[in-house]
Amino acid sequence: MKIVDLDGYALNPGDLSWEGFEQFGELTNYDRTTDDDAEILKRIGDAEIVLTNKTRLDKKVIDEAPQLKYIGVLATGYNVIDIEAAKENNVVVTNIPSYGTDAVAQHTFALLLEITNQVGLHSEAVRNGEWSSAKDFTFWKTPLISLTGKTLGIIGFGRIGQAVAQVARSFGMKVIFYNHHHKDVAEDWIKQVTLDQLYAQADVISLHTPQTAETENMINQAAIAKMKDGVILINTARGGLLNEGDVAAALNSGKLYALGADVASVEPISHDNPLITAKNAFLTPHIAWAATEIRARLMGIAVDNLKAYLYGQPENVVD
């Protein structure tokens, strides 16, 4: 059986093993593949199994791949796959749900704490001699912010949103959340609110909702106008949740105090993305998932997905 991985480098740049997949057949790995259908079809050839992280498999590719039976998405998001075309061709599609809950929660607070404590800025100041030449035992170059007593508003209260809430509680934050569907919560320290209520009450807003037709560009000028002045916005979900032009304008005007984002609407981020030059925008290159331990966990689940499919009991099927 032939297995083709179209873009394996991001998941495994050399520090993990592909042996889990190799036990099932002849594996061909490509570091990267463009979104050119002809190139994708050439690389797939007569493979039955295709693995992809971000390489798009549209209707043309799925229709014209002669032996394709299974697509293993090496990520949680599967918007790169034409699911309807897969159904029409009886191609099973699986993804990797929930592999990085703890990692994304950790990175959410890494961004938030960088904004509130400015560790990078002050470390660089010390290296540049500013502490050595200071007149006092301490100094700070920017206002420092305590999280205790602040209200965190979480948009999207799935596994990641709930993990973020638990961390926030340890910092003494108040937690409110908005979710598209009602969530029953037993904890008395968490409160479900409407989206408008969240905008009005939150000091920090953290996004943990999927990008859909309903949520795309949800953080726009109109939404920002409903927020408190000086809100901190964190996005470790999907870049398309933000109208990046509107967010940049709000940062530059001071309406938003800061943005911490690990995602962009186009990735890699465009050179002309307005967030790059926006005031108080702290951006990381989609690394919340990238710890070695987390990528190894992802690969293990992907191997288990393929094994379950081959045994006739597919798991984590998306449709």
From TrEMBL:
Pfam families: 2-Hacid_dh, 2-Hacid_dh_C. Keywords: NAD, Oxidoreductase. The lineage of its organism: Bacteria, Bacillati, Bacillota, Bacilli, Lactobacillales. One of its GO terms (molecular function) is NAD binding. PANTHER family: D-ISOMER SPECIFIC 2-HYDROXYACID DEHYDROGENASE CATALYTIC DOMAIN-CONTAINING PROTEIN-RELATED, D-ISOMER SPECIFIC 2-HYDROXYACID DEHYDROGENASE FAMILY PROTEIN (AFU_ORTHOLOGUE AFUA_1G13630). Residues 21-318 form the D-isomer specific 2-hydroxyacid dehydrogenase catalytic domain. This is Glycerate dehydrogenase. It comes from the Bacteria. Belongs to the D-isomer specific 2-hydroxyacid dehydrogenase family. Gene3D superfamilies: NAD(P)-binding Rossmann-like Domain. Residues 109-288 form the D-isomer specific 2-hydroxyacid dehydrogenase NAD-binding domain.
